[in-house]
Structure formats: C-alpha cells, structure tokens
Amino acid sequence: MAFQRFASPTLPTPPEEYEESYFMNLIRSLGSYFSIHDSKAGLNIDSVISDFIQLPIGAMALSNSANHNIALPKKSFARITGPSTSFSITGIQGGEDGKIAILYNTTANAMTIANANAGSTAANQIITNTGSDVATTSTGIVSLIYSVTDSRWILLSVLT
Fold first, then answer.
1. Where along the chain do its domains lie?
2. Nearest Cα to 116, choosing from 129, 97, 101, 103?
C-alpha cells in the first residue's frame, strides 16, 4: 500500500516548559496526517475496515475451466465475473513479498483454487496448505498472501 501524502507535518515549536495547549496543538497537527483513535473508546471491526483498510476494488473477467497465470487488476480486492460453469485458478501473476489478494467470486459457479498446479508458472502457483485443491460453492471469497521465501501464493482463508 502506498501513502497518499509524503510531506511530513509541520509541528508546533515546543515551549520552554511543556504545557497542555502545546500537546493539543501537536495532536491537531498530527491529526491532519494520521487517524488518531482514543484507546479507551474501543474499536469495532466496522471502524477498522472503514478507517484503515479501504481496499481498492477491481474487476477481473475469467473464463470457464482452468485460469492459468491470471493477472490481478492492480487492486487488492478483485471481483471475479465471467465464468458460466465451474472454474479454477491455478496461479496468479505479480507476486511480491507480503502482497495480499482477495478474490470475490460473484458468479453462481464453484471456484476452485488449485494447489501447486503445473498449469501455471512455478512462481505464480498457489499453496492451499491442504495438499489438495480448495473450492468455494458459488459466491465465495478467498484471500491469499505472496511469500518470496516459498515463491508461491499462500491461501489464507476461504469463505463459501
């Protein structure tokens, strides 16, 4: 993820002796660059998702049957459309260490994530950690992370 702003904040000059107004000015200055949450207020999942994650959404049209070495739409969250029958994903291009991909199957057809399938280039393959393929029933979501050490995508979760 990239930061939208690269300029550092202009902080107020500290007085000889620290006082409460200095700290309030400091917090207001930082607040324009960062989200500040009161640690005593607590967080819920909705505020974390809306305040911090905000995944950009991209569309990805796939085909029926096996989809080898698919290209992500330069987004973290991709909505899959296209297949009119069951389909599979055998590998994903563009893996970088720690890169996360969330794939949302919007079709009414089962999506299979193929485990270490030779149909895709080795560095694009997926490890499901089950030793076999993993499938969603119709609409489902899978999340993956890329590991440079393993030179593979690692399946993190499946929601069916």
1. 20-52, 55-159
2. 129
